Amino acid sequence: MQFTLAISVLATALAVAATPVKRWDNALYVCSDANWSGTCENVGFNNEECIVFPGELQNDITSVGPPQGYYCYLYRNYSCTGDNLSSVVYPGISDLGDGNTDYNDGLNSFKCFGSVGSE
pTM for this one? Predict the structure, then answer.
């Protein structure tokens, strides 16, 4: 019985160790409130890949900051198509609710691109 348990534990450990870890090119910094406050998170992305915001941030983003050397498109839908806030660059937008856009608490996905000349 103990031998079977030991083999089961070893098999589980090997399966976990073999699970690939997602590597990201960079991260988009987003916060639920203005001026980089509230719930904040670095959301990893790969260049030109559509990323859906984590559930707790969907339709709840007020501050958004791309990393230097990237420009990002932020979308209302979950597939990086359609209505978007385009070409957001570093340092980003600290308050989407300031009246200059209508995207406050309305974003669900994004796609970032490395700028020409960036490393």
Answer: 0.78
Other CB atoms closer than 10 Å to residue 11's CB: what's the count? 10
Q: What is the per-residue pLDDT for 70?
A: 96
Domain membership flag for residue 13? no
Q: What is the CATH number of the domain that holds 32?
A: 2.60.20.10
Tokens found for residue 56: 């707790």
Q: CB neighbours (10 Å) of residue 77?
A: 13
Query: What pLDDT score does 22 carry?
Result: 74
| Helix count and strand count (H, E) for the chain | 1, 7
**111 by DSSP, 3-state: which?**
strand
Domain count, the chain: 1
